[in-house]
Amino acid sequence: MTMTEQRTGPGTGEKLCVACASAETGSEPERPETARERVNRRWNELLQETRVAQTGVQILFGFLLSVAFTPLFQDLGTFERAVYVTTVVLGATATASLIAPVSIHRFLSGQRMKDEVVEAAGRLMICGMVLLALTIGCTLLLILHVVVPGPLAVVLVGGVMLWFCLCWYVLPLRLRRRGARRPHSRRLTRTTHVTEK
Question: Has this prediction a pTM greater than 0.85?
């Protein structure tokens, strides 16, 4: 064994670095997670995120579908109808992207491909969130163009979309970059250690 104490993960046969777990906290080390535990945790987190996003996109999509059957829809001009069609298509594609992880999981369940399922579901979630943001932006444009005629509607929608970009993309990427600059030893709390003397 090396100078750092090592333990074997439960039923996996892989060595886990115990010293790494205590590097960040400075207290007693907690048991590092194995590769299987990590992928299960990531999948559970992804499911929780999917539930939140699916609820939002389904309510919005249901609202959009009902708009076409209201009496005022006949009074919409060409621009408003084009925005409406674009919004409905974006809403449908966002719905497909955000529900796709469930279908992928169902088809690949039991195939020992959880890593691939989590990776594909994560990418579809990001794609779905982009499409959801665009759907919300187009919905705002449709409503504000009718309520506030003129360029003010476009300015308001642009401001809201900028806020979406800051909250949903810029902030997470900034936090990710900040985490990548941390000392390497602090990020190893749950990393497996396979070297043995």
Answer: no
